[in-house]
Amino acid sequence: MSDRLTRRRFIGAAAGLVAGGSLVKTALAAADGIHLGQQPAGLPDRQHAWQSTLAADEHGNAIAPKFDRLIFFDVAGHPGQSSIRTLEATLRSLERRYPWGPKGLLFTVGWGPAYFKTIAGVASPVPEPTALSDFELPTFDRYHAVIHLAADDERRLAHVEAGLVENVRGVLAHRETRTGFTGAGLPAARQVVNGIPSGDPVPTSAPLFMGFKSGLRKNQASESDVTIASGALAGGTTMHVSYMRLRLDSWYDVLDERERVARMYGPELTPRDVARLTDDARGDPGRYRQDALRYGVVGHSQTSARARRKGRPLILRRDFDTIDDGVAGLHFVALQRSIADFVATRKAMNASSAATLNPAITDTVNNGINEFIFVLRRANFAVPPRATRSFPLLPGQAAALR
């Protein structure tokens, strides 16, 4: 059976799954309300609680879902209780249809500063995005909401998006979708694209276009680390979303493997060292000054690792490669307790002080991977806990969800 859902089946499936995996065809509620439907037992309170559903490699590192979509919306009209219930009923129907996890479906719903200020009429819990280096000129997204979908089945995500956009029409207006992938073999199979030189340089074992592993256990914040402890969004988190273009011609055609390792990790590491990494990708942040002086190069992991709290990273990355618009790119998704934690991490990555240590280093030359990524867009979102994900802080939300 196709995964495509009609509006009636998508929202009206209060009874959930039946034999054969089809949804019960239940009519939408009458004009006096919309049936929310029940949620499956055992769903985590945190929308961003994905980790326990992920498989792990032989070293205990989580294996990310293979495919992702970021679907951006603006609020349509003046939302009230029916808008809240329509969105929540749609999300609950997804939870009934697909098991929580990459074999089924994972998703989070985030809300931007413009939503809180102009729709909910409250102070935004997240700031407006800004440029985070002297060498970037990004466009700042002002979308009201984003839904991040992830699964191991790319076709499923396309079908879920189509049904979701249709069913929230009149409540949320679809503005843009960004797509992507991560995992061994997926970048190599998609490397004939602008931004990557000819000759198939991306290794078949690489999970990302730049050829190296990313999400190792000790270079990621835990879900608890990034969870907001108190206040209106307690149990939620914040999300930063960037769209970066990759320019990898010189990465592969000019630099050899040792030089790529130096820029990704640190100049004291060798390709053999990197092949043995099992739980942390960082170069030694304590050698930052020494390496800049001695080698005229500092590494991306090395500089980023300077932004840690008690030795632990500040952000949980859920980024993925993309070939949107026919160009190699990266959709960088970062979760953190506060957007300030992301800003601190990005500024550490910029390593602007390295140029004062050695004239061979500039903001972008011999300075991590800054030379090879170009930030096109930035956005910030708040991700509430599951119970208040539909139009958070909007007056009347609690009554609408009873």
Q: Can you tell me about this structure?
A:
- The strands form three sheets. Strands 3, 6, 9, 10, 11 and 12 form a six-stranded mixed sheet that branches. The protein has a four-stranded antiparallel sheet with strand order 2-4-1-5.
- It is globular and about 70 Å long.
- A hairpin with a 2-residue loop joins strand 7 and strand 8.
- Helix content is 23%, strand content 18%.
- The chain is of the alpha+beta class.
- The longest helix is centred in the N-terminal third of the chain and has 17 residues, at 81-97.
- It contains eleven helices and twelve strands.
- The chain has two domains: 7-211 and 389-400, Alpha-Beta Plaits (2-Layer Sandwich); 245-379, no CATH class.
Radius of gyration (Å): 22 Å
Helix percent band: 10-25%
As for the number of domains, it is 2
CATH architecture of the largest domain: 2-Layer Sandwich
What is the rounded distance between the termini? 34 Å
Low-confidence stretches: 1-32
Provide the structure class: alpha+beta
Compute the number of strand runs: 12
Q: Mean of the pLDDT scores? A: 91
- CATH topology of the largest domain, which one? Alpha-Beta Plaits
Strand content: 15-25%
Helical run tally: 11
Keywords:
single chain; about 400 residues; alpha+beta; Alpha-Beta Plaits; 2 domains; 4-stranded antiparallel β-sheet; 11 helices; about 25% helix; globular; disordered N terminus
Blueprint of the fold:
Blueprint: H1 7-11, E1 67-75, H2 81-97, E2 106-111, H3 113-120, E3 139-140, E4 145-151, H4 154-167, E5 172-181, E6 237-246, H5 249-253, H6 257-264, H7 271-275, H8 288-295, H9 300-304, E7 308-309, E8 312-313, E9 316-317, E10 320-322, E11 329-336, H10 339-350, E12 373-383, H11 397-400
Parallel strand pairs: 3-12
Antiparallel strand pairs: 1-4, 1-5, 2-4, 6-11, 6-12, 7-8, 9-11, 10-11
